[in-house]
Amino acid sequence: MKRNSVFVLAAVTVLLVWPSASHAQRGRGGAGGGAPATARTSAPADLTGYWVPVISEDWKFRMVTPPKGQVGNVPVSPEGRRVAEAWDPAKDEAAGEQCKAYGAAGVMRLPVRLHVTWENDNTLRIDTDGGTQSRRLGFGQTPPAAAGQPEWQGVSTAQWVAGARGGGAPSVAGITGPAAMPGGSLKVVTRQMRPGYLRKNGVPYGANAVMTEHFEIHDAPNGDKWLVITAIIEDPQYLNSPYVTSTNFKKQADATGWSLSPCSAR
Length: 266
What we know:
alpha+beta
């Protein structure tokens, strides 16, 4: 009888201890005790590769440099309009400021190709052939601001957002936004940008501008893969209201057409 009581007590002890130990192990290393998930391993879709821009709207503002003073649909403030009307590319060149249109808030709207790679497990890197720029999207803790003058690409903090965004998401190649990246999308917030141009003809954004982007992958019925980037730029200095754009890129199988070129002020 004593032997049976001891056996039952031991079995109950095991049942009480086992869930706690199992839970602790899952907490340390994820399911099965593996390594903790990184931004790369938890990505809901693969954004890496070469992407070519498909420009079907705002062509006259994006494919060529518009005349001075043409702001189009950018909601510029009176101060923003004043700065745009004073644009002088020769002055930018003399000051070594040829890259003002290639900062984070402007470069994705230029006719540039993208090369997206993982620089490390928690940093997604976007290189552009036009202007030879590099954006680094850091997951986790916000990276510290660079010492000295702000960089053209600012400081970008990224996170995966669960579930596809509904409503307002653009459609491309016949696919609506909510059908894209059902596992989630990439949200990027960029601050601390060096003042630059939203368009090459001097439409400005200032040092306090903040850009929020949503990156979504769309799979077309014919097998093409599309990257749609919705950007919201807020700038209390030069904009009256948020400036919203949607920019489309199509994935390429290789680096065909990739051609590095320097910034141009004109």
